[in-house]
Fold this sequence. Notes:
The protein has 168 residues and is mostly helical. It has helices at residues 26-55, 60-65, 68-93, 98-117, 123-148, 157-160; strands spanning 2-7, 13-21.
Amino acid sequence: MEAVAMFSADGEKVEFNTQVTLEGPVEAWLCDIEDTMRVTLRQQLKLCRVALKKAGTKRDKWTKEWPGQLLITTSQMQWTQDCTKALSMIKDRGDKKSLKSMKKKQISMLTKFSDAIRGNLTPIQRAKIVALVTIEVHARDVIDKLIKSNCNDVMGFEWLMQLRFYWG
């Protein structure tokens, strides 16, 4: 017998990169499954990040093609990168509009997601987008807070106190 995929509680399926043979002591093959899960998710996260960069602002197809947790993680990593870039532009170039521009993009993205939620989606797709919207609303609010507090540096307290996602 072999394990070939993992399923979320919502029914999302992620195929393993390699099959795991379920023979011998249960402790051994459970560890193998755990390792395979980590390797698979790391590779899928890399691919999801590339897909997001290709999708740009057109995330509707992207949200349908990837598991929910990868969508959220990738989106948070992209948001961290975008905020860091915007704050660096404020400090280095004195470009005070970079965060405001980012907020406009965030609002536009949220509008597209809310339109998608009202569309024809499977229950899993709807749940993924609702979860993503929740995260993105928080991201919009953080950007707003950064603007209102006049945060103008990646070392500013308002930015440092935020949970940030980096790829390493």
